[in-house]
Structure formats: C-alpha cells, structure tokens
Amino acid sequence: MKLSVHHSRFWPLGIGLAILLVATMPIVTALQCPSIIVYRVYVTDVRDTSFTVTWITDIASDGHVDWGLSTSLGNTKSDPVANTTTHYVTVGGLSPNTTYYFRVRSGAAVDDNEGTYYSVTTGPTLDIPVPGKIVWGYVYDSDGMTPVANAIVYLQLQDMDGRGSLENSQWVATRTDDSGAWFYSLVNVRTANGYGYFEFTDGVDRLRIVAQGGDKGCIGEDGAERTVPIPVSYPARFDTSLDGVPNGSPISTPNDTSTVTPTATPTSTPSATPTPSPTSTATPTHTATSIPGTRTMVSYQALSPPMINGDISEWPITGTISLDPSTAHFIAPRSTPDPLDSSATIRSAWDDEHLYFAIHVVDDVLVADSAEMWKDDAIEMGIDGLHDHLPYGPDDHQFTFVVDGRVGEFGVPISGMTFYTREVSSGFDMEIAIPRSLLNLETLDAGHVLGFTWALRDDDGNRQGDWESHMVWEGTQTVRSSADWGQLRLDADPILWQSTSTPTLTVTPTPTATPTPSTTFTPTVTPTSTPTATFTSTVTPTSTPAPTEEPMLGVYLPVILIE
User: Which residue from 117, 109, 113, 114 is spatially nearest to 31, judged by alpha carbons?
Assistant: First the structure.
C-alpha cells in the first residue's frame, strides 16, 4: 500500500502570520502499510517567542514539527500525546520578528509543503495583558455525552461594529484535557498581523469556534460554521458536540479577502481506512485514595512577615500537608509518580495583606523546557476566595509556580507576586507571598475559609517538553473551583518563626516579560551565607522554549494554558 500525504498550502494572513490550509492533492512518498494521511495543517497563536502547529491524521500516530531558521531545519518538537489523530505542537524559545521554517511528520508521512517548507514570522514583544475574559467548555462525541480528549479547539474574534480592532483576529488554538475540557483567555488573542492585541466589544463582536476531533469528526468548519456573540460576562461556557464524520473539511477564513480558498484537484479520496471510533469512551480513570470528607489546610497568623527568599528553614513544621501518591486525591492517568522523584509538602501563614506559602518539592531531575508553564516542574494552586464553588469569578484563581521562577495565573504570566525558588539537595524549595489585592478579597481575617487545592507537576524531560505526572491534593484539577476542592482556613493562632531576628518582607516582583525556559535545568548553588541559589540554564539547539491549559485547556489549556 502506498503512503499518501495530503499537502497543505501556505496562505498569507497579514504581516508575519499565516494560516495553513489543506489542498487535496496527494503525492506518493514511500511504501508503507498502513498508510497515514496528513490533513489540515494550520499554524496559530503566532507570538513573539512561539507559534503553534496543528494537524490531523486519518490513523492514530505520533506527531513532530521539524523547524529552524532555514530550510535545513535542525530542531524538532514532538506532540506530547503519542498516539492520536489530532496533533498539537507549540514551538517556543524563539526570537521576535524572525522568520522560521518547518515541516510536520506523523509516522513515515512527511508534509514539507512540496519541498518548499512552511514559513512563519514571529511578532513583536507586547506588554503582558491583564488576565481575564476566559471562555471555556467541553467537547463531546456525536452522542452529545461522551467527552473527547485531545480535541483541538480553534477560536477567532470577528469585528462587527467597526470599533477597536477591525476585521478578524488571528486564529488561536487549544487542546482539550482528559476530561474533554478546554479554556482560553481572550485577552491573549492578537490581531491578524500580530502587532497588537485584538480589541473587541463584549456582546457585539463575535467569536468563531471550531472543534476538530480527528477520527471523531469536527464541528464549525465549512458548511457548519459556529459563531456566537462575544460574552458580556465571564467566564463564559461553550460546549460543542462533534459530527462523527472523520477529518471534515478545511477551516475557511470568512471576511478575509487576502485568503484564497484552494481549489480541489480531481483526485479521488484516499482509500486509507481511518481508525474506527470506539463505541463508548469512559471518563479517564485516576488513582484516588479513600479520604473521608473534605480536607482542610490551616494557615496560621503571621504577627511578622516571613523573609521571602527561598529559604524555608524559618518555617515551623506546624500545619504541614504532604502530597504524594498516598495522599493525592487524583493522579492523572499518564503515570503514577515515584515519591522519591515527585512529592511535596506545603505550609501556610497569613496576615492582613498576604497569604504566605512554604513548599518543599522532592524531585531528582529539575526541568523547565516548555513554552507552557504547566508542562514543566511546577506547583499549582487553586483558590476560591469566596468558597462559593462557582468557577472563574473575580475571587477565583489558578496560580502556577515553575521551578525556573515563572509564575502565571490561568497559564498567563503575571507580575506583582513575591516568589522565590531555590535548588536544594533533594529537589527545590519555594516561598510565596500572594497579595490580598491580587486575590480580589476585601479582607483577610481569622476564621476566613477559602476553597483551596494544590497540585504537583513533574517533568523529567522524557516527553518532549511535556509533564510526566500530575497529582492533585483535593479534587481532580486546579482550574475550575468546585465542591470537591479542600479548604484553607485562616487561624488566629500565631505562627512561631524559627528565626531569632525579626524578618522583613523582601519584595522581588516576578518579571513582566515572559522568560525563555531551557530544556535542561542545571542549578548552581552559591556556597555563601546568602540563601539564594543561582540557576544557570544551558540551551541546546533543540530546545523549544512561555505558554500556556489543559488548557492552563491543560495547557492543559489544557488552553490552556495559554501563551
């Protein structure tokens, strides 16, 4: 049987950006059985230091993007999901306003744009937007009930009133997590030329949604466009059911006169047999311990603030909570971690203006090699300030703290947080001070109970820039506040610092610009009395590395998450 590749064409969509649309002309490249056919190659989310490539195949396979500064390429970034018909790869660690070339591979199938390779030019560096305006939802199979993992959700903002940004935004994409959920922050969407964020009018301009499930079908592509008014309140939920027809048709670009729809050549539809859709899809399994009731973590009153420098030796052991395979309520089905490689403890304190946390992580390999911060060695916290179990309100937050010093909210880099991380012999320590103002709470006082959970992600560098294990203390995720989260209770009892001197809060805001993480984390410990470790990163030519799931959609963003 001959291997066929459905080549994709390069169509410009503004300066420095592109959307890649699929033509239907197959060519023979090799002998292979069974054949793999590549469809729907698109480039989305073109930013200053990253871009995302998505495509589908008729048979579940691996996916890879070979890329470089010339057609010689020289670098490879792989899809962290190894056996799927939908492929999603973010290439990061790039330079602004620079042209890159790439091709895609699945199995033995190679799509290099008929030998000319695809090219994309990154945009300029923009200020980090204020987090918010989150849209989210679930993608279901054609039965309307079974969630679809690894579906790709494409979004585009469309101007309707002639105000703010005109015409259409660039396309952005995110991927559903194991529960079929996705999310995306619309403040991150850029204009078609990538030189600014797309300014839109809530309730007037429109949002186009396309969901692609590969062998499970799609929705919102040609003939079935789905556009909805941009919400007036957030978060806004948009659920989607796929049509059950494998592969579908290419995404068109309505209202964009610079895009020419390719003309199909009179070739027959390839005869490759697509992977049959399963008759039913169960909710992904997870490992859970039998823990009665909802667990509560106690935060003790700080009569004087801790010194936030990464040295947690001044913290007493009072109120320590452990997270390992025996205490986690949820362990993602990808792998069960070894406690000697992935476990953590956390302690908390509070005063009128801050929540404080001290965290110790046991980890034998420290890795920060992804553009999406939730794919690296990191701690996540979910906080429901009002404890109302309602997601995405102004009191709801998901923070990610990465081993290399990045910090984000819902996967979007943020500033204003006091956060130090330092390497120790068994892994790394973190000290965190979260301002009350960032939590959008009027007061912090004794007796206050917040919805709370926390999670540990471990990346040992074996999954091409993606995490290998994910444990959640209470609940199954940290993104959407829910009744199955635990609690954080602010206690009137004072915390007794182990330091003999009265420490003062050292404010070291996190960077406002997204740093470029490396593939290999090689910390150098400074052997002085100053308790600050210096991390020196070595960048290799294949490093890919900001985001952003699962989709925080996440990712998992995983949307997510996002940038």
Answer: 109
In angstroms, rounded to a whole number, what is the distance separating the alpha carbons of residues 224 and 218?
A: 9
3-state secondary structure 78-102: ECCCCCEEEEEEEECCCCCCCEEEE
- pLDDT tens readout for residues 101-116: 999 999 989 999 989 9
Q: How is residue 353 written in tokens?
A: 């203006």
- Position of tokens 């995983």? 558
121 CA to centre of own chain:
22
In angstroms, the Cα distances linking 155 to 22, 174, 217, 524 are 18, 9, 17, 42
Q: Is the dihedral of CA 328, 333, 338, 341 positive or negative?
A: negative
Q: Which residue has the tokens 């390839």?
A: 270
Using only the alpha carbons of the chain, give its radius of gyration. Answer: 23
Q: Please compute, for residue 409, the number of CA atoms within 13 A of its CA located in the half-sphere on the CB side.
A: 23
Q: Which residues contact 36 (CB under 8 A, 6 or more apart)?
A: 3, 57, 58, 59, 61, 106, 107, 108, 109, 272
Please tell me whether the peptide bond between 292 and the residue prior to it is cis, using omega within 30 degrees of 0. no
3-class DSSP state of 216: helix
Are 216 and 245 in contact, with CB atoms under 8 Å apart?
Answer: no
Which amino acid makes up residue 523?
Answer: P
Q: In whole angstroms, give the CA distance from residue 320 to residue 363.
A: 18
The answer to whether the pTM exceeds 0.90 is no
CB 55 within 8 A of CB 38: yes
Separation CA 488–CA 372 (nearest Å): 27
CA distance 43 to 18: 6
Contact 343, 362 (CB under 8 A): yes
Distance separating alpha carbons of residues 178 and 476, to the nearest angstrom: 11
242/433 Cα distance (integer angstroms): 43
Quote the CA–CA distance of 527 and 338 in Å, as a whole number: 30
Whether the Cβ atoms of residue 72 and residue 47 lie closer than 8 Å to each other: no
Name the residue among 255, 204, 198, 201 with its Cα closest to residue 229.
204
Residue closest to 171 by CA, chosen among 208, 213, 225, 132: 208
pLDDT one-digit tens code per residue, 547-562: 333 333 232 222 222 2
CA distance 129 to 197: 9
Element (H, E) at 437: helix 436-439
Comparing CA positions, the residue from 148, 68, 65, 53 lying closest to residue 110 is 65
Which of 373, 325, 315, 352 is CA-nearest to residue 495? Answer: 315
435 burial via Cβ count (<10 Å: 0-12, 13-18, 19+): middle
**pLDDT per position as a tens digit, 468-503:** 888 999 988 898 877 889 999 999 999 989 864 444
Token pair for 106: 């699945």
